[in-house]
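Tutorial sheet, problem 5. The two components below are modelled jointly, 847 residues in total.
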Amino acid sequence: MPRTSPPREPGRRAVVTGLGAMTPVGNDVPTFWSNLLAGVSGVAPISLFDASDLDVRIAAEVKGFEPRDWMDFKQARRMSRFSQLAVAAARQAIDNSGLEIGDHNRHDIAVVMNTGGGGLEDVAIGEATYLAQGPQRVSPFMVPMLSPSMAACQISIQNGIGGPVITSVAACASGVQAFVEAQRLIEHGDVDVVIAGGTESAIMPISFAALANMGALSKRNDDPERASRPFDATRDGFVFGEAAGVVVVEAAEHAEARGASILAEVAGGALTADAFHISAPEPSGRGAARAMQRAIADAHLEPEQVQYVAAHGTSTPLNDATETRAIRAAFGEHAERLAVSSNKSMLGHTLGAAGAMSALAAVLAIRDGVIPPTINLDTPDPECNLDYVPNVARQARVDVAIVNGFGFGGQNAVAVFTRYD
Amino acid sequence: MSQRRAVVTGLGAVTPVGIGAEATWDALVSGRSGIADITLFDPTPFEIHVAGEVKGFDAMAYMDAKDARRHDRNTHFAVAAAGEALRDAGLLGDDGRVSGDVNADRFGMVFGTGIGGIGIMLEGQMILAERGPRRVSPFLLPHMLPDSASGQVAIQYGLRGPNMAVVSACATGGHAIGEAMESIVRGQADIMLGAGTEAPLVPLAFAGFSQMRALGTPRDPDTGEYSAPMASRPFDATRDGFVVSEGSAVLVLEELEHALARGATPLAEVIGYGSSADAFDMAAPAERGEGNQRAMRAALLRAGIGPEAVDYINAHGTSTPLNDRFETMAIRDVFGEHADRLAVSSTKSMTGHAMGAAGAIEAFVCVKAVVTGCIPPTINYRHPDPELTLDYVPNEARAADVRVALSNSMGLGGHNSTVIVRRFES
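Model answer (structure tokens):
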């Protein structure tokens, strides 16, 4: 999409200047990051609804979220929780970047806010109202509230951003795709700044019932903090979570001109499809490997330059073994030298927000020279034989990190973050 | 290196006026409405009972029975329209999958939808309430998420390139085609489907639209008699709302050299794409279509053409009082004097508003208009609105030398997308 003024030179570099996080382990970036490094689990018994008749009763919820701290009360009531979380995280990220938004620049800023499902909560509420009280009692705000694009719209409306506003959905790969898209928008000179990220909130009975019946969820109800155990031999499924993560992605020259501090560079990315099955990954990990290779090539790097892989690592038996094979296929011998960790061990699987969670981890790992661990990794699995940074964070210089996101239906997205110099 | 160009080499459509691209086009240029009484559910609890349903559609003609049973209607439409478009482009092999001659890793799609599998979601919700959590289908989530159509199309036809579903309410279809075009121009892929699909005709969604007080009244404004097709009357002074409809349209976009090398016929070229946000309100459009103006200007700039090069605008034209007024103002502001020389029609007068599929259906119309030199009309147009003074191609199709056509789409939340297509010229 072109900007309204003539485009500048193509090939501009995209850098990160601000971060925002609403997560199961913290409602701001410093808390999120210190808890990830300390190996704190955000998984607990479900509190957002009565889950007593469900097989799975644990989740990674955002705790103590008060929408009114972040937005007008009336507006908050007309937003689904996935939009509220996104608006809050975007507020943090924009403040963190020091970006002032006004008439001088509002059309040269885009929003790319992805999600897996959108306002499913409001579909359920609407249906209950419809059945109990009839169609005339259904909220006139239901349709806009449930629309998956509404988180992006609300960020645009709340902040007066008038450039392209885009929501793309690729199930669990959605959050990573946002950065691939953001980098393209900057590189091609369409806009100067992209508010990019992912959001998800679907902690409701139907999601837990459906995912549990798929056999996708961990049933460790009695041991919630140890339920998400990516790459561990005793893993039995993922823990469903909610979160929003937002990153301010900006043209390097634009960031430098306004004296912003640059945290990292978004260097490239790629999307591929397995074209295989609606929920299972293609077993060789071919599509996922291809996405990693293409993303690294897109960033003009060699696989040997990558130090850290923020893995998709869901804690399902199939994903973790397939992803391990895919990493080996993409990196060859260099796979032995990679640090590969899954923050889902602490955050659960936040679907459309998961890629944004890993992007935050990648940027902060580059900034601070420390890699968050995969917790609950106690029993090695012979099929998962990489260095998963088990249980304890590790000091290590990270210049190049990749973020993996693989979705239902075989959608693969990989983004590359690098140290900016 | 010269700029990569994205040409259209195949079309597919499943719409309320016909199943298949030819059937759809014949109906549109004949001025036939697809709006009728609702049959997909019992509409008696509602004040307004009309919609643009796809009629006589049998999913099993396009997918095997097991897949058809599990998937939502929006995915059925997507698979059907994509199959037609792939065949039209000469890309399907005998086994019904993409032929071995093209690199499937460089063949992807942007398949948009406004809402995804809401029918499946509501079935699941009903089962949860009546029979308990253990009876909920394990396939519920992968089949109701908005990207399940794009996933299933990739699986069924074997397309392994970049794959995503964009969502921007009623602006979705334009975004999908524009993003697909950009993927080709940027070199991420050689062939992309740019497409939209929607199946929102379930009681709950219909209740939501009804409650927004935005639906058109199915009554002849002159005689007062009941008339389903009259519910959609874009740009008419008596217009009072839109008609919910469903369907899908698919454009095969292909890099020009790639198309020529395999002997395909380029039908048209997608030359422009613009996108903007109103940053104004969740439901109402911004004054004078300010956001729509910026999207149109951005698309013209991207296309490298002036406003005077445009011959035809397929308007968003929903038939709501506000949309049609603001869109007219936006067209006047962007096109200046040339606005009086433009043909502007709303095919929603016949198809109704297919939400996330609308922009794709209307881009399909633009391609057909530049290929055939025929402009489909705005039907049900009888009472000129003194404020709305463009040439809306009232009631009868028109033969015209259409070289460049523009499609506008706008969505709840203030999304705007504009796509421009040009007759193919080497």
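Marking note: Chain B touches chain A through 92 residues (CB under 8 Å). Full credit if you identified this.
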